[in-house]
Amino acid sequence: MIPFSKIIGQEGPVRLLREAITREKMPHAYLFSGIPGVGKTTTALALCQALNCEHPRNEDGCGRCPSCRKMISGNFPDLVILEPDSQVIKIDQIRALDRVFSFKPVAGAFRLTVIRQAEAMTEEAANAFLKTLEEPPPGNILVLNVTEPLNLLPTILSRCQRVSFRPVPAALIEAWLVENQGIEKDKAQVLARMASGSPGKALEMGRSDFLERRQELLFDLNRIIPLAPQEVVQWVLKYVGKDTKDKREAAVALLLDVWKTWYRDLLLTKADCPEQMLLNIDFSRELKNASADFTIDDLVESFFLLDQAERDLMLHRNLDLLVEIGVLRLTRLYGRRKTTRE
User: What is the pTM of this model?
Assistant: First the structure.
């Protein structure tokens, strides 16, 4: 369990919540908005601990009282976390939540309910939840976590106090990874830059084989760009493979994400931007060499080509065709530039 004082890069939200605790005027519903992994759920848990601690210190939980110990062990009965079931939040889940609300908090002064990915509510679930917001049971605080608030019903938005969570600066994420997670500085530097302001994403990547797969993808990109079209198609078919649909989509998503950072960095290198602006900073020498093969216009076109492919992937377009067309377009841009130079 992380108290308010240990949450990184979210001074605004933490200050707002601490002030509400001090005034003893807690809204019945909050809307926490921000990118995944930025600290929304962690902050909600810190709020639950601070509200129910028997001996709070500076609006932080003491960490030693029975309530805090239960929070730390994950056994606090007045903390409810609701998540999507098969990618959506169903009306049955909201009805079950209402049944919980019919009882008073068991161990603390407040029951805190976190609804993760609240925008995943079905229309029926959202309408049923609206009734809960209109007549909130006493002793309950709701925290709705969303990435984009506009994906919720306006009537739900109007009944929540909105709290915006901003992306965390890479320097703060890097220091947190080194000091709190024991990750080597060189790796932490790359993870922090690749995390797009999300400490949770940086930690998840650090615990996986992301750095190794990233290196392989960047090597493959620079190897296949000069190849003939038929060789490119063979590479694509081998990469996409014949695994499950979810695993194939995840592999393609990673490829597009990593390659997009490469073309972003190529564009910055071509424009003589400071090296500290690079995401793939450990490839700065390779980026400088590769940037000579492109014009700025070609790099902009390549970046947006990959960005569009990411959008198409979210629309569940044909994976094989999506990657094949995208990679072929990248090779044609390289070939066009090479022909022009010759």
Answer: 0.87
